[in-house]
Structure formats: structure tokens, C-alpha cells
Amino acid sequence: METSTVTRIAELAKLAIAPAECPHYAEELTQILAMIEQMNAVDTAAVTPLAHPLQLTQRLRADQVTELDQRELFQQSAPLTREGFYLVPRVIE
Amino acid sequence: MLWEIVIGLEIHTQLATSSKIFSGAATAFGAPPNTQACAIDLGLPGVLPVLNAEAVRCAVRFGQAINAHIAEYSIFARKNYFYPDLPKGYQISQYEHPIVGRGAVEIVLDDGTLKTIGITRAHLEEDAGKSVHEDGLFDAIAINDAATGLRYSGIDLNRAGTPLLEIVSEPDLRSPHEAVAYARKIHQLVRWIGISDGNMQEGSFRMDANISLRPLGATQLGTRAEIKNINSFRFLQRALEYEIDRQRELLEDGGVVIQETRLYDSVKDETRSMRSKEEANDYRYFPDPDLLPVALDPAFVNAVAAELPELPDALRQRLQLEYSLTAADAISITASQATAAYFNQLVQQIGDAKLVANWMNAALAAALNKAAIEISASPVSAHQLAALLARVQDQTISATSAKQVFEAMWAGEENGDAERIIAARGLRQISDEAALIAIIDAVIAANSQQVAQYRSGKDKLFGFFVGQVMKQTRGQANPAQVNALLEMRLRTD
After folding, report:
1. Are strands A60-61 and B114-126 parallel, antiparallel or unpaired?
2. Domain of B457?
3. CA distance A69 to chain B (A)
4. Does B267 map to a domain?
5. CA of B279: how far to CAs of B16, B228, B263, in Å?
6. N or C: which end of chain A has fewer CB within 10 A?
């Protein structure tokens, strides 16, 4: 794996990785990919893809409002709130 | 060079459920920020999503209405990306196995012919929250926050988890006009079958457009741009027109179109590229381990189909056949269930479908349009309009007076009672033959010069006599009767 790929994955995953660390991660990830290559070699043509390990189907709930407003409680754990909004560092422009 | 325009639309429509797709929080629009965002919507640790049965039913209902294959098994997947209004870091959506498969709708082109537009799929997903970036709103905090000097965005998660049905069309649309016709068709359909209120101001119906150009006759698609988050049909038309010009100029100058996401700015009337950072998405879809596959019992699917009302296309064809209405009339009458119901009630009361269609598509449509209200909020009810049309039918009032009465009804005069307005304004048409003859004879006697001219061949003067009679009767004479009687009295001496 190229170090540039490591940089891109880090960006997508919002991970701060120092350029100096990239070669190290590239090497480790390459080893993981080798293992995946090995798994890819298994013939799965006749195997149905598994969406979930449990052989069950989704239960549905009735369309009813059951949750009351707990904004005050939830906002106690937020670093910054104003007028009911959660505040985050400005995300555009 | 001649170019072929290729457009596909992705439409996000909010489903009309009371609670969220995966939680029991309310979905009502306009609540104070974050008062309808529960632990599941906030993505707090340890919570689990539970699927709303009504959202599933809405999706199946839509699938049935477009004649689509309904998946026996469908799967929810996580679409991963970072944005502050998406607290979990992923959106629960469907990827490989959507609930609704391939279907189609028909649009009516300008020349009256029908065109079938393929629908690739429709899938269920949750909406994200809203970010508020308005200048100045949270800046006061920044000023006080001298340590960082940061500016802030406000996050409201009330919308987070609202059920959406994303409807993806095939690239079958060949002009902005067709794209708008298709979008309107979907808008009509989701409201008709009651799965969405389709309120565009409130964001219940949002469109993304994929658009590319290719040399006419080419079979391979050109590189497309995606225009995101268009919330009106007018903006859809304008954004596509702008984008077609941009791509055409680019291609004719020997350039290439870059595959990218663009935003339409309605103020500047242009599309512009989103910054590359926002574009750097790799969603890493995978099946959501918190949700099991959704299995639909064929009996349930059939029951949903059985509950569907007569669909607008079928009703349109039936109206054209049964009442000999024009396609244009039938299309406006089937705009919504409310319009169709209004029409039905009127026809039942007064019978003449053509007269009803004319009034609904002219005077009523114009008044509704001017007041920017839906027919369900019309101050003139079908019952009230029927009372007016009955008086037009029996010639109690003239067509001109009828318009006056309608305006008075619209303004709420006499409680919108046609009879009382006609009486109060003295609009009753004079159809009494003896009375009309007396007036006509008086007019003839008073204008002997014109009578002589008319009798010596100046036919054009006929209009003058009609005008005089109308003046004498303050416009209340039955025009057809006046014409017939005048001709008779002017001929004989």
C-alpha cells in the first residue's frame, strides 16, 4: 500500500496521522490486505451472502410517539449549547 | 455540434409518519430545536434502532403505485461520512437490497404523447439533522470566546431520523422540461397515495439531479455532474438550464466535464462546485449489524396494494372517456385527491362536467394561484360553487355576472351564498320576453336614424342596438335572447 492511500484513509476516518508514521501504517495495512487476499482465494460462488449472522428477520414497531422531550438532560453532556442548539465549530465558509 | 441531454433524478421525500423511522421521537415540523431528538436520534452509546412499520408500509405503497418489484428481503446499510448534523457518523440507508425495485411512471409531454420514465429503485433511509450557519446568530459567543476566536454552527437534530424514501430514476429524461414533468409526477403520486405531504417549503420533497451531455447519436453516457438539494420545480428547471449551458460551452471549447457535486444558488442563478473536501466521500457501505433483514409477507404486500386508491393516471383516462374532457382539463383535475374530489362533488350536483372543468381550471385555479393556497383551503367550497353553476345552467345569470358572483363568494360576501349575492347585487338576468321586447321597442323608437341606416344595409349597427339594450338593462338581459328578439324587431316594421 502506498503512503498516499494511508493519508486518504486517515482523512476519511478523521484520524490525525503524522507523515512520519505513514510508512509504518502502510506496512501494517499491507499485511492485513495480504490476509484478505488469502480469504478472497476461497471459492464462494455457491454461497449466499450473509446479511446478518442471526437467522431472524426485523421486528417492526408501531408508528407511535413514545419519546418525550429530554433536551435538557441530553444537553448536559454537550460542550456548548445555545437557544436549544448544539454548537459546533463553524462547518462552512 | 448537436448534444443530447441526459438527466436522472434522485428525489428524497419525507414519509408522513408520526414518529421517526428508528425511534419513537415525533416528526412534527417546526418544533423548538432538539426537542424531538431522542437518545437514538442523537446516536448515544448503547441505543438500538427499531424499524417503524408505517415507514415500511409507505414504501411498499409507493412500490405498488409505480408497478415495481417489492423485495421479499431488504437490508439496511450504514453509509459512513462525517458531518456535525449526523451524530452517529453514519446514515442508516439501503444499498444493495432496496425495498422497492424497478418500476415506472408515465409523463405527458407538451404534444400530448406519453413517455415512460423508468424508476431504478426506491429505498428507505433516515434524514440527517439541520445545521444553522447564519451570520451573526452564534457569533456573539465567538466574540466572548477570546481564547479560540472560533465561529459556530448550530445543530438541530429534530429532523435526524425522519423517514425518507429516496426515489431514483433511470437516466431517461431528455430536457429540463421533462425532468420537471417527472418530478411533478412523483410529487403528485406521493401526495395522492398519502405517503408524504410533499411540502417543499418545509423540505419534505428535495431533488438531486444528475446531468450529462453527449453528442447526438452517441450510445455512451457523458461524464455527469450532480446538482444537490433543489427544493422547487422552478429551481430545478433553472439549475438544469444553467448546467446544460455550462457543460455545452465546456465541451465545445474542448474541455472535459469533471464528475463532481454542484450546488444551485438561486440568488445568483448558477451552479457551483462544492469544495473538494466535502466531495471526498467514500461511504464504505456495509450491512447495519443493528438491524436484521426486513422480510415482507406476500399477504402484507397484496393487502397494501388492495388499499391503494384509484391512481391519478387511471382516473385521468377515465375522466377523459366518461366526460369527454380534454387531456389538459383532466390533468389539472387529477392534480391531487382534493382537486379530484372537488370535481366529483360538483359534477354530482350539477352534471355538466365540461362546465365544471372550465370553472375549476379558469376562475377557481386563477384565484387559488393568486392567493397561493391549495384547493383544500379554498374559501369557495364545491357546494357553494355548485350553487353558482346551477344558476349559470338555468340562465338566471349571465356568464359575466357569474364571474362577479364568484369573486364576491371568494371575498366571503353573504357567507358565500350564490343566491343571496345574485339578489343583493341585482344580477338576475332578464329573460322575460315581454319585458325585453318593451325595452327593445323603446330603444328602436329612440334611435330612428340608426334604425333607418341599419335597414338600408349597415349591418354593423346591430352591435349598437345590443349595447343600448344591455345599457338599459344594466347588463342583465340574456344576451342570446336579446340577439334573437332584436333581429326580429328590427326586421319587421
Report:
1. unpaired
2. 431-489
3. 5
4. yes
5. 31, 12, 12
6. C
